[in-house]
Amino acid sequence: MATINTLVTETNCPVCAQLSTFRIDFRYGECWMHLYSLGDDLRWGPEKANVGRPEDLRVLVEGYDRICPHCHGRDLNFDISIENNVLTSVAPLRRQPTENGYVVIGD
Ligand SMILES: [Zn+2]
To answer: How many whole angstroms from 33 Cα to the centroid of ligand 1?
Structure first.
């Protein structure tokens, strides 16, 4: 059954810009409630459990947290960068979300 993964990281809140710890849910790679930190290798499983393709080397994945612990801003959207299957960075989402929840930005 497809589910979500979570990236736990310190980053700047999209609303108040304060550095806080966020739990950012996303759907990419093997979606099986994996818990990630920045710098981790993305995990891939059997084809049915995967979103996206491991051969796409540079991908931006949309992520979501419910609330900022600092300003209590809600429905926070992030952009998670994945390069060579490593979660490399996260930033506030500054583009239109896609239907897939991710966008491949090239090899
Ligand atoms: Zn905030």
So the answer is: 25
pLDDT digit string, tens, across residues 30-74: 999 999 999 999 999 998 889 999 999 999 999 999 999 999 999
72 alpha carbon to ligand 1 midpoint, in Å?
6
Averaged over 84-106, what is the pLDDT? 95
Structural domain for 60, as ranges: 5-106
Question: How far apart are the C-alpha atoms of 52 and 63, rounded to whole Å?
Answer: 14
Cα of 20 from ligand 1 centre, angstroms: 8
Q: How many structural domains comprise the chain?
A: 1
Closest C-alpha among 78, 2, 93 to residue 38: 78
State how beta strands 5-12 and 35-36 pair. parallel
Residues with CB under 5 A from ligand 1 (ion): 13, 15-16, 68, 70-71, 73
